[in-house]
Amino acid sequence: MTAKPGQGPAHFEALFNQAPCGYLVTDDGGRITAVNDTFASWTGYSRSHLLGSRLQSLMPVGDQILYSTHCIPQLGINGAVSEIAVEIIGAEGERRAALLSASRSPASDAKPAVVRVIIFSAHERRIYEKELVAALRAAEESESRRAEAEKELQHLALHDALTGLPNRAGLKSELDQHLAGGIAGAGRLAVLFIDLDHFKAVNDSLGHAAGDELLVAVAQRLASAAAGTSTVARLSGDEFVVADTFAGPTEATGLAAGLLEVLRTPMQIEGLEIVTSASIGVAVAEAAGETLEDLIRRADIAMYRAKELGRSRWELHEPAESDPTVDRLRALGELRRGIREGALRVHYQPRIDLRTGRTSGVEALVRWQHPTRGLLPPSEFITMAEESGLVRPLGAWVLGETLRQADNWRGEGPGGASLEFAVNLSARQLNDPELVLMVEAALRLRSIDPALLLLEITETALMADPAAALKSLTALKDLGVGLAVDDFGTGYSSLTYLKKFPIDELKIDRSFINGLGSDSGDSAIVGSCIDLAHAVGIRAVAEGVETLAQVQALTAMGCDLAQGFHFARPLPAPLLKEWLDASAGGEPARA
Ligand code: C2E
Ligand code: CA
Ligand code: CA
Q1: CA 144 to centroid of ligand 3, rounded, Å
Q2: pLDDT band, very low/low/confident/very high, at 35 (cuts 50, 70, 90)
Q3: What pLDDT band is residue 558 in, cutting at 50, 70 and 90?
Q4: Which residue CA neighbors atom 27 of ligand 1 most closely?
Q5: 266: which DSSP letter?
Q6: Which of 126, 265, 316, 589 has its CA 20 to 30 A from that of 304?
């Protein structure tokens, strides 16, 4: 490979000689092995005279000592550049002040150590120093400009452009500073989550400029009302947060009340007098380690409640209260909409009479056709529906829809009889004082014989409050509907209650059916459940039957009804109808 133009050794040699300062290379002892023209003409010595002589010999004795004791030892450190001001004695005996800058490459395998020396004359040295100072100053200036620009960027990143308040990131950083610097008073960290009421209406009716003006005015009011150590931030849109340490919840909600008051005073926006209000959620740190984000989330939940309870008020988030995440609230909203807009479905799973092999009825099992997540099983939403109370409208819908289907399928049962329809009831529905009226109305609407309806209630729900359950069951029984204890074996019902409850059926829990045949314990349990049911004069039903062996074992033990994937999965109404038609004609049902 050939050297590119400008890179060959000849060019370096020319540069070496032309340089405006003296260049020398010496060995460790100071003996000169290379020297440039500039140094030669500067001192008046010929290059041949200089080569081989010692650099120190060109210095007065004091400088020789300085060079040897001060400059050279520093060069031992690899890469270090050592600088020293000395005098160089020229060929005519004249002394010239010079700045000497030396660096050293240590010896390696074949090569001895070399010391490279640059020598500036005093005049050059002044230029050098001037340039150095100028360069240093320029560097300093650009550094401070850079720092300023960085500060500005940082400010932009941490603040909201419209109101100038810290944003979410800024809130965290300010709060961290306050807490670390002990500026925030002692006490517990608390967050006030403030959301303007009906801000969208202002924005929509008066325009964005007015909306912005309102936000700026609100920001100013909050900032001056919450003055002191509090950090006021704007999270987004019309959401603000005030964070500080407080002695306790009373102090924090006191500030919330004060802020509500301040916001209620009318504002002048674009020449109009606007009255605004806000809903505030308050959360106070309980446990150590509760982060700002935790508190914001809890305060947000409390804020939602303040909205639901009529707005223009504050609500305190109690750490002990059930803690639905914002996601959960969204899911609840979706479910509420789903119920209203017809996104629920009922699938039907056949119940087989083990003595005849015929389908005697179906169990209605709800599904939710979710707009984005697809068809959801009840495990995804029943608990949420129960906890929120949505299970009442949901349950009423399932019952209504099932009885509509029962009306359609009149006479589709064995030998032209009608099928029996089992519908699940939740604990929450059981305690609903309107339950009986609701069931009665649903039956009447479709003129369905109450005896064709079987309501399933889990053993756990019944035993939660047996006395109350007994009352509800008795009222339902009076309507003439059938009652089943679902998931039997998983709760702790006493025989006393089983005898007292006006029930018609025990549904043995799927987990025991699973082990039938393989687990002798399970087989024994299933056997005694069947016996128990028969002893109190009611039917035994097995659910979750998946194999022929299970069917045979159940038949041998005298189980009355069975249900499970072995026969059919829960199916949408049209498919179930097909299945019924296919398995009719006296043939025992098969999967
Ligand atoms: P469940 O009342 O015990 O319903 C039986 C569950 O077992 C159903 O699950 C059914 O699909 C499943 N299953 C049936 N046969 C087999 C089988 O052979 N093997 C297995 N592994 N599973 C089988 P699903 O439909 O997911 O319903 C789950 C639970 O949701 C139900 O348990 C019931 O407690 C509740 N649920 C369903 N619909 C409603 C409703 O309308 N209202 C209320 N309150 N709860 C409902
Ligand atoms: Ca059930
Ligand atoms: Ca069950």
Answers
A1: 73
A2: very high
A3: very high
A4: 378
A5: -
A6: 265
Which residue among 386, 424, 487 has the greatest number of ligand 1 atoms within 8 angstroms of its CB, and so is best to mutate? 424
Q: For the domain 168-335, what is the CATH code? A: 3.30.70.270
Per-residue pLDDT averaged across 315-333, rounded?
Answer: 72
Judged against a pLDDT cut of 70, whether residue 132 lies above it is answered with no
- Would the pLDDT of 273 be above 70? yes
Query: What is the distance in A from the centroid of ligand 2 to the CA of 519?
Result: 24
Task: Specify the CATH number of the domain 343-582.
Answer: 3.20.20.450
Ligand 1, closest atom to CA 487?
3
Determine the distance separating the centroid of ligand 2 and the alpha carbon of 470, expressed in angstroms. Answer: 19
Residue 140 Cα to chain centre, angstroms:
43
Cα distances from 451 to residues 189, 353, 482, 499, in angstroms, run: 60, 17, 6, 21
Alpha carbon nearest to ligand 1 atom 7, residue: 544
Q: Which of 495, 435, 436 is closest to 466 using CA atoms?
A: 495
| 508 Cα: distance to centroid of ligand 3 (angstroms) | 7
Same-fold call for 9-158 versus 343-582: no
SS3 content of the chain, % helix, strand, coil (to 5): 45, 25, 30
Query: Mean of the per-residue pLDDT values for the chain?
Result: 87
| CA 486 / ligand 2 centre spacing (Å) | 6
Q: Whose CA is nearest to atom 46 of ligand 1?
A: 424
Who contacts 168 (Cβ-Cβ below 8 Å, separation ≥6)? 233, 235, 236
Task: Please report, rounded to a whole number, the percentage of residues in the chain having pLDDT higher than 90.
Answer: 50
**In the chain, where the domains are located:** 9-158, 168-335, 343-582
Pick the CATH number of 9-158 from 3.30.450.20, 3.20.20.140, 1.10.10.60, 1.10.3720.10: 3.30.450.20
Residue 458: partners with Cβ closer than 8 Å, 6 or more residues away: 427, 485, 486, 487, 490, 491
Count other C-beta atoms under 10 Å from residue 361's C-beta.
Answer: 24
Quick one: 218 exposed, middle or buried, by C-beta within 10 A (0-12, 13-18, 19+)? Answer: buried
For 334, what's the count of Cα atoms within 13 Å in the CB-facing half-sphere? 16
Report whether 537 contacts 503 (CB < 8 A).
no
Give me the mean pLDDT over the 218-244 stretch.
91
SS3 call for 196: strand
Q: For a pocket test of ligand 1, which of 362, 365, 506 has the largest count of ligand atoms closer than 8 A to its C-beta?
A: 365
* Mean pLDDT of the region 186-191: 86
Beta strands in 28-113 (DSSP E): 32-35, 81-89, 95-105
Token duo for residue 275: 């009255």
Which residues, judged by CB distance below 6 Å to any ligand atom, belong to the binding site of ligand 1?
349, 365-366, 377-379, 382, 391, 395, 398, 424-426, 456, 486-487, 510, 543-546, 564-565, 570
CA-atom Rg of the chain in angstroms? 45
For residue 209, how far is its CA from the centre of ligand 1 (angstroms)? 54
CA distance 71 to 82: 6
